[in-house]
Design brief:
By secondary structure, the chain is mostly helical. Helices cover 81% and strands 0% of the residues. It contains five helices and no strands. The chain is globular, with a radius of gyration of 19 Å. It starts with a helix and ends with a helix. The N terminus is likely disordered.
Length: 129
Amino acid sequence: MARTGTKSAIVCLTLFVGAANATADMDIVSKARMAAVEGDHVTCAKLADEARKRPGADGRIHHLYATCQAFAADIKRSKLSKEEYVAEIQKAIDAYQLLLHTPGLLPHIEERASVEFVIEQLQKRINAP
């Protein structure tokens, strides 16, 4: 009987810890989304970057990071050298390319086409004088 109780306690603890981690991940994603809605793309990019590095991050989190990173680079552009600006834009491009090249992150052809278009536009910014 004691073993059954111990197993039940371990299962409950495992479920609780898993749920707590999922909640923590959602909290950081929710904060990133709220920062984006409020126009604070620098904070959004930081939070989304942290969230996308966690296990189980899906394409939406990577997309949120890439989008906020591109906006954050534009917001900080006047304070950055050309090389720093290019590096910031390249982070967004790399995140978008991760979406394109990781199976399952962009399940629909329309999403892929949209991301490809955004990458082209960001590359134009890098090549602009």
